[in-house]
Write a structure and sequence with these properties.
heterotrimer; A mainly alpha; B alpha+beta; C alpha/beta; A: mainly alpha; 69% helix; 0% strand; globular; disordered N terminus; C: alpha/beta; six-stranded mixed β-sheet; five-stranded parallel β-sheet; 28 helices; 43 strands; 25% helix
Chain lengths: 464, 175, 988
């Protein structure tokens, strides 16, 4: 959809040639990391360490170290889980869906977007495990033959669907990402010497790049993309059924699957924006991640943000139209009850501020976009918090209504996720080519070569 | 036995293509073309058949779906039937998500696996020496000399005519 | 079915989180009585655990057996069946053969089994903290008795044999007197009857016979005299069903909100100082209607017309012969008018009786005042105190006189404020390890027998006195001898005493032929025109709480964590205020206020709790809190860095309000004490199990036409009679016509267990809560956890109030797992830790649970309980009260009501053993068993003839949240309000 806008000026600026791309992308991996990188790493690691302490304390002492109670059984834990799963989605969307749609502007960001997906899913996967009362028995959620009957698992439980959805999502994303890495790993290998060469030799699977391999390789990528696309839709739909399949007012809604998926894309793109804006600064990739890319993502943000807003309205309409006083109460309680503050943070960050991106001046200020993307992340975190906590804390019987005050330990578990995520991401920037060189090389603008029978227009198909 | 190869290195994939096409037209046997990125048109220039990977994907998916459904019906309905919230033993709608995920999982892994197998690449495989440049910016067209009916000079001339930066001859043992 | 056994059998596996003491305990259960004794008792050096040499034929290891005995939790003396396992009582239940309590047992009675195993019970005699042998103690005692003035101070003793030995002790010469003191005094009632009927006695009340009940501050369903019996009688008088509904009309006048007020059809707020005038007015009005010569005169204090005394008089008069007026006040004059009113209503002989008076209260405040005089004068050489704790219960100025006694000998079960002052402490036995008897109502006896060999080296007062009088008889002998000579002859039970005694021991109950005494007449001359009462600006109402009563149970963690049925507060007594008063004071829930006697002498500081329906000019505070030594509960609850201790080290649970009581002209004033109340600015954590006290959703959040939810329903009697369908339909029978999406693959089972709860019978007494806790090994979690809404009780009593002021109406709704057939919790558990049994039970399999809490989130009733931490017992020795049939859950596991699956299994295997098929009522679940009003009925819904099936098709029957089609197996019967002629206050 953004193709026309992007054709006007080259995707990659600075008149880069293939060899320049190799140099620019591999260079940072071979030299010493910048101060900024060390700074970021220090921050990420300390957050990770602090969080790990909190998580350890909780696992050792019990879920009681969280602020949950007989009425509100889930709080930060599942909020974080849904949040991180959501973050992952943009990665797959950029790498798979945009690939299918032949969106060439994706080439310079898809690698890191996919990496983001994988790290986000790792973070997401941790919360369902530590949120268990007896995490050391987490393996019981897998259907394996055992001496208990054998007692299998409950395939009717949305939580079990999660196990399969998240598991599949992680595996497929990882495979897709690594297959995409192989040619670039070969490039790194061929520039490297000594131990690095040995390591990358192993990692690059002995890649050469013969025409036959390339042909199979591309088919494989398209196939994986075609698989990943329905997968990504299914994953957040399944996550949404954790709530949608229950009887709790505010959870029990058929709207949830599409609503969650679009929300995930929304938050995911916001996170990609955040990371790309940081990355192009830290790694000096302004020529590769250009304003074009940022604008494109802004537009996706406005688009998905507007759909999310529509979903909010639909939700409220359904509650009113259902005629169920319990449903109606949930939404009145969200907007006016004890957790109204969270609800209004959610609305302002997800519905109101993204609309500023319609304004060109905002779209042209990297700083503004950066702040907006952060706000969206905040808003989307609160969306999950609102859905989970405000639906639970006042449900059917007034006698068991209660509040929910997160403890320090819970904030620790929140920090843990971000610490882990950024640690992994910075390591990735440092040790792996964070721009898909072979894809970028394929879409470079070239000076008209002499005596060429073909018309350059055909080049556009190369990416496929 | 030995075989002699004539290799031309091009900086631009269009020149590589034109060279390849002439070889095809003149029936000069081309062993392979090596590029830093997929070059569009090289397939028909070298007469490479479209990959059959999609069939692998289909098969993988089918297996995944079948296993998924069987697993769920057997464990929930046959091996140990339990009353779960009054839902019937065959709760097909509830079995769809897992079956779907398994379909994708098997299809994806099968496809990736097939790629590695057919392309003969695997962790730690030694790569062909002498082609470092082709993972950077240059493309290589490898011609094979099959019989004496053709003199080597013509190969070099052809490659250079199509704009190869350089051309070299190699001898390698095939057994 | 495999899964039917899933939640059995983990008991003997030492689970991951098992604490050593429990593992050890589990091993001991394998052995017999000796094991229990060796682990329990402090006597003798040997700690060896030896199996039986000759196994007693009546004890089969692993099978529980029952022993009939009598509850000593208060002086009501209800009949108890002790369920024992391997020589150890593990559960107390009401004795169905007991003609008074009829199988009911209150929370306190249920909790007695835990205090038996209290390690802090006194083990042997002590003098100045030095342990000594009984021989030495007896010597000291004898010498002390030979001094001049000897006074014996006890609480009400319902035991005839003990009274017999007291008489012999008094008769043995010297200046000896027996003074009886009740902290929850009914002294004025007895004194009043001495004046009006010439007999200082407490009448036996017959609430079942009353068509109209006017109660003035008498909490007869909660704490007054004999609540279990009264509640049972009360519901007999309220039968809304059948062709001839007979629902008594109950009007309650009170200052605070009591359980009885909550049950009343009509409730008026009455300040303590208004009561005398109100009853005088009532008596006068009845006088007029009776047309007798006026004794009340015409100069009477004006009574607020709002009280509607005239209307009340009409109702009572219309029902004369079936009317009853009761008052809980300790004001003699007021009680005179109560008697007068009852006499005018021909109540004596029908709704209350002096022919066979109650012996459940015998205390005389006047005698106590006299004793204190003697003590203050230093005249008392020897003071023996048994069974009560005056140093705590008396107002401070009286308590101070105890130190003036020459020798203070205290006979008590545990260390308390009084033993701290004693020169000689004699350990008493726990009721569950002693031989005793009781005569709650004249001529009606029950026996107490040991359920376990003495865990401590204690003795009964009977034995102490007998031994002091040079008797060498042992406990059982003393009791048996008395019964042989005194009771057996009167029982006309045939010749053989041993057979007779064994039968009574088995039944636990004996009724001797009534000695034909006709009702006494009232001496009209004893009634005089009322003297005026000075109105107070603001007064303290110090009332007993359902859990702690007079404070003697303050060391029982179960009772401390039992939510007060009215305030729902645990681990504290609080200052209950009306919203108006709180607003005037500028305080909110949790703010600490200072309550100071007008003379400024003493004060207590307590957190505020707002109470609907309370009189604005009083602050209501529960007695029995602030007991010294309750800081033992410091360690209750988890220890983690944001956790707060249940009680500060060196502190007490709650504050002692007894300090503010006054002994004035021979009357212990508990209510209507003038106090001032001020805001301190401090706030305190109030551990309340219910935050939202009404079925009304907050007005600003209420959807249109859905301001009030209908979980707990009430129906006016008139509606029930004339248009029941509509009246109930008006509440919306959403459940009706719910069609199912699924096919039913699981029909055709033999049983389908279900339950019905009659809200019209439930008084909210909370006996079931403790019954469940005892039966199902529910842990105590401590104040901080309760404040975080993590109480573990499997059954909770939801208390909903509607309206304000006099229009406040309350419904109590026991809520627990509804065992839904379409259970939302089962569908969501990923690991099949909760599944449905073939008999309709929603089973929780603890050892499979990984603790995702998904089930609890999805439960519409929020009845699932999660083990947030490991919750060990504060007193490891109390692990002996654990029920071996029920798994002790570890941390991280979900749990909930199981419909007492272990009892169902037991009954089924029993029927399999005997070959007789299960009959309706063979299975009694714990909560049902002990319910004094039989509000809970459990049975097989597949059997159309079962009581529960019949209940579930009644017109009053409905299922909570039927409309979401989870198909609960529990039906509730709407509460019926007899609004008299008037409109139903709050139909919704």
């Amino acid at each position: 959809m953004h193709t026309d806008a992007l054709q006007a000026t080259p995707l990659i600026t600075g008149g880069k040639r293939a060899t320049d791309v190799t140099r620019d992308v591999c260079g940072p991996l071979e030299g010493r990391p910048s101060k900024l990188w060390y700074l970021g790493m220090a921050a990420a690691l300390s957050a990770f360490g602090l969080g790990a302490l909190a998580v350890g304390y909780q696992v050792a002492n019990g879920i009681g170290t969280w602020g949950l109670n007989r009425t509100v059984g889930w709080g930060f834990d599942i909020t974080n889980f849904v949040f991180w799963v959501g973050i992952g989605h943009a990665g797959t969307l950029i790498s798979a869906v945009l690939l299918l749609f032949r969106q060439k502007w994706r080439t310079s960001i898809n690698r890191s977007a996919e990496a983001m997906t994988i790290f986000a899913v790792i973070c997401a996967g941790i919360y369902p495990v530590i949120h268990m009362g007896r995490p050391w028995l987490a393996y019981w959620v897998f259907p394996y033959p055992n001496a208990r009957g054998p007692l299998w698992v409950n395939f009717r439980s949305a939580l079990l669907w999660d196990v399969f959805a998240i598991g599949t999502y992680f595996t497929i994303s990882l495979v897709f990402w690594y297959i995409g890495l192989i040619p670039d790993l070969a490039t790194v290998r061929d520039r490297a010497t000594g131990l690095r060469k040995k390591i990358f030799n192993v990692l690059s699977f002995g890649w050469v790049g013969s025409a036959r391999t390339w042909s199979r390789y591309e088919t494989c990528c398209v196939l994986l993309a075609a698989l990943a696309t329905p997968l990504v839709v299914s994953v957040h739909s399944v996550v949404s059924t954790d709530f949608a399949t229950s009887v709790i007012p505010g959870w029990h809604a058929t709207l949830f699957p599409p609503y969650f998926v679009i929300g995930a894309v929304f938050s995911g793109f916001a996170m990609v924006l955040t990371l790309m804006i940081i990355a192009r600064k830290v790694m000096h990739f302004e020529n590769y991640i250009t304003m074009k890319h940022i604008h494109a993502m802004c537009k996706v943000l406005v688009f998905t943000g507007s759909i999310v807003a529509a979903a909010y309205l639909t939700e409220i309409f359904t509650a009113w139209y259902s005629g169920s006083s319990y449903e109606q109460f949930v939404f009145l309680n969200r907007a006016g009850g004890p957790f109204a503050w969270a609800f209004w943070i959610m609305v302002s960050c997800n519905v109101i501020t993204p609309q500023l991106l319609w304004i060109k001046r905002v779209r042209n200020s990297v700083l503004a976009i950066f702040i907006l993307s952060l706000l969206v992340n905040v808003g989307m975190w609160f969306e999950r918090f609102v859905i989970i906590v405000t639906s639970l804390h006042r449900d059917f019987l007034p006698s068991s209504w209660s509040g929910y005050i997160p403890t320090k330990i819970e904030f620790g578990s929140l920090i843990f996720g971000f610490g882990l995520f950024f640690t992994l991401f910075l390591l990735f920037c440092r040790f792996l080519p964070m721009i898909a060189m072979f894809e970028v090389k394929a879409v470079l603008e070239r000076p008209e070569p002499k005596e060429l029978p073909q018309s350059p227009s055909e080049n556009e198909e190369v990416a496929a | 036995m030995m075989r002699r190869l004539h290799i031309g290195f091009f900086d631009d994939e269009q020149r590589l293509l034109s060279a390849a096409r002439e070889c095809r037209d003149r029936g000069i046997p081309v062993l392979d073309a090596i590029s830093p990125f997929p070059v569009h048109g090289i397939d028909e220039a070298l007469g490479i058949e479209p990959s059959r990977l999609p069939w692998v994907t289909l098969a993988g998916g089918a297996v995944g779906a079948t296993l998924g459904l069987l697993l769920q019906y057997w464990t929930a309905g046959v091996n140990w039937p339990l009353n779960i919230g009054g839902k019937p033993l065959d709760s097909f709608p509830a079995f769809v998500p897992v079956a779907f995920e398994l379909t994708i999982l098997f299809a994806g892994l099968a496809t990736a696996g097939a790629l590695l197998l057919r392309s003969g690449i695997w962790p730690g495989k030694r790569h062909k020496p002498g082609f470092e440049a082709t993972t950077d910016g240059s493309h290589a067209l490898i011609l094979e000399e099959r019989d004496a009916s053709f003199e080597p000079g013509a190969y070099r001339e052809l490659l250079l005519r199509h704009g190869a930066e350089r051309s070299e001859e190699r001898e390698e043992v095939i057994s | 079915m495999q899964h039917d056994q899933l939640n059995q059998g983990e008991l003997l596996l030492p689970g991951r989180q098992v604490d050593p003491s429990r593992r050890a305990f589990l091993q001991w259960t394998g052995f017999g009585l000796a094991g229990a004794v060796a682990t329990g008792c402090s006597r003798g050096p040997t700690r060896a655990v030896v199996p039986y040499l000759d196994a007693p034929e009546d004890i089969v290891p692993g099978r529980s057996y029952r022993i009939a005995t009598t509850c000593a939790g208060c002086s009501a003396a209800c009949g108890v069946i002790a369920r024992c396992r391997d020589g150890r009582p593990i559960k107390l239940e009401g004795n169905g053969l007991h003609a008074l309590s009829r199988g009911g047992l209150c929370a306190v009675g249920q909790a007695e089994v835990l205090s038996l195993y209290d390690t802090q019970r006194l083990g042997m005699p002590e003098s100045a903290g030095e342990p000594m042998a009984w021989e030495a103690a007896t010597t000291t005692l004898r010498s002390a008795l030979n001094k001049g003035k000897v006074r014996l101070l006890t609480g009400t003793l319902t035991s005839p044999s003990t009274r017999h030995w007291i008489d012999r002790f008094l008769a043995a010469g010297g200046d000896r007197e027996h003074v009886v003191f009740d902290s929850l005094s009914a002294s004025a009632i007895l004194d009043a009857h001495e004046r009006t009927h010439g007999l200082r006695a407490l009448p036996a009340y017959q609430f079942q016979a009353a068509h109209v009940i006017a109660s003035f501050d008498a909490d007869f369903l909660g704490t007054w005299i004999s609540p279990v019996v009264f509640a049972a009688d009360y519901v007999v008088g309220r039968r809304p069903d059948g062709d001839h509904p007979q629902v008594s009309r109950h009007v309650q006048f009170e200052a605070r909100m009591s359980l009885t007020g909550a049950a009343a059809d009509e409730r008026k707020r009455l300040a303590p100082w208004q009561q005398r005038a109100a009853l005088a007015e009532l008596a006068a009005q009845l006088e007029q209607r009776a047309g007798v010569a006026s004794r009340m005169g015409d100069e009477r204090q004006a009574v607020d017309a709002e009280l509607g005394i005239t209307a009340l008089a009409d109702e009572l008069w219309a029902a004369r012969g079936h009317a009853l007026v009761v008052s809980g006040t300790n004001d003699l004059e007021t009680q005179l008018y109560v008697n007068y009113a009852n006499a005018l209503l021909d109540a004596y002989g029908s709704t209350l009786s002096l022919a066979q008076p109650s012996l459940q209260r015998a205390g005389s405040d006047a005698a106590v005042a006299e004793l204190c005089g003697e003590l203050a004068a230093g005249e008392v050489e020897t003071l023996i105190i048994s069974g009560i704790n005056p140093a705590f219960e008396w107002p401070d100025e009286l308590a101070a006189t105890l130190e003036r006694a020459g020798t203070l000998i205290v006979h008590a079960g545990e260390r308390n404020e009084t033993t701290a002052l004693a020169d000689l402490v004699l350990p008493a036995l726990h009721a569950l390890e002693s031989w005793d008897d009781a005569e709650p109502i004249t001529g009606r006896y029950s026996l107490t027998q040991p359920t376990v060999q003495g865990l401590r080296d204690g003795h009964s007062l009977r034995w102490v006195l007998a031994t002091a009088l040079a008797s060498s008889a042992e406990e059982r002998e003393l009791l048996a001898n008395y019964w042989r000579t005194e009771i057996h002859p009167r029982a006309d039970a045939g010749g053989n005493f041993d057979a007779f005694f064994d039968r009574v021991l088995h039944d636990g109950w004996l009724e001797t032929p009534a000695t034909k005494t006709s009702e006494r007449k009232l001496y009209a001359k004893s009634i005089h025109p009322p003297t005026a009462v000075v109105a107070l600006d603001f007064a303290l109402v110090a009332h007993p709480s359902v859990g702690l009563l007079d404070g003697s149970h303050a060391h029982n963690p179960w009772l401390q964590e039992l939510p007060d049925p009215v305030t729902k507060v645990t681990w504290d007594n609080v200052a209950s205020l009306s919203a108006e008063r709180a607003e005037a004071l500028g305080v909110v829930h949790g703010d600490v206020v200072r309550i100071e006697a007008v003379d400024g002498a003493r004060a207590v500081e307590l957190p505020v709790v707002l109470q609907r329906g309370q009189h604005s000019d009083v602050v209501a505070v529960a007695l029995g809190y602030g007991r010294v030594g309750t800081d033992r509960f410091h360690g209750v609850g988890p220890d983690w860095f944001e956790g707060r201790p249940t009680v500060e080290a060196g502190g007490t649970v709650g504050s002692r309000v007894e300090a503010l009581r006054r002994m004035q002209d021979g009357v212990l004033e508990g209510d209507g004490i003038g106090v001032t109340i001020t805001k301190t600015g401090a706030t305190a954590q109030v551990a309340c199990t219910q935050d939202h006290h009404s079925l009304e959703v907050p007005p600003h959040l209420a959807p249109k036409d859905a301001e009030v939810r209908d979980a707990a329903r009430t129906i006016a009697l008139a509606d029930l009679i004339h248009d029941p369908e509509h009246a109930m339909g008006g509440h919306g029978h959403h459940g009706a016509g719910n069609s199912d999406l699924w096919t039913d693959d699981f029909g055709g089972a033999l049983h389908h267990w279900g339950m019905s709860i009659d809200l019209n019978r439930c008084t909210g007494c909370s006996g079931c809560v403790i019954a469940c806790q005892a039966e199902n090994n529910v842990p105590v979690v401590g104040r901080d956890e309760v404040a975080r809404h993590r109480e573990m009780h499997w059954i909770r009593i939801d208390r909903y109030t509607q309206g304000f002021g006099d229009a406040t109406s309350t419904v109590h709704q026991p809520m627990f797992c509804q065992q839904c057939d379409n259970a939302p919790c089962e569908a969501v558990c990923p690991v099949l830790a909760t599944v449905h049994s073939s008999e309709g039970l929603n089973q929780q399999i603890y050892n499979r649970c990984v603790g995702t809490r998904y089930c609890a989130n999805t439960c519409p009733y929020k009845v699932r309980r999660f083990n947030w931490f490991e919750y060990p017992r504060e007193d490891e020795n109390q692990n002996h009260a654990l029920n071996p049939d029920v798994t002790v859950r570890s941390r991280g596991v979900m749990e909930k009501c199981s419909f007492c699956a272990q009892r169902i299994q037991e009954a089924k295997s029993e029927s399999a053993r005997t070959g007789q098929s299960l009959a309706d009522g063979d299975i009694k679940v714990a909560c049902q068993q002990s319910c004094p009003t039989q509000a809970i009925v459990f049975g097989d819904l597949n059997d159309p003839e079962s009581e529960v099936s019949k209940h579930s098709v009644q017109v009053r029957a409905y299922g909570v949240l039927e409309e979401i089609n989870v198909k609960p197996s529990v039906r509730y019967l709407a509460k019926v309000e007899n609004t008299g002629g008037k409109e139903n206050g709050h139909a919704h």
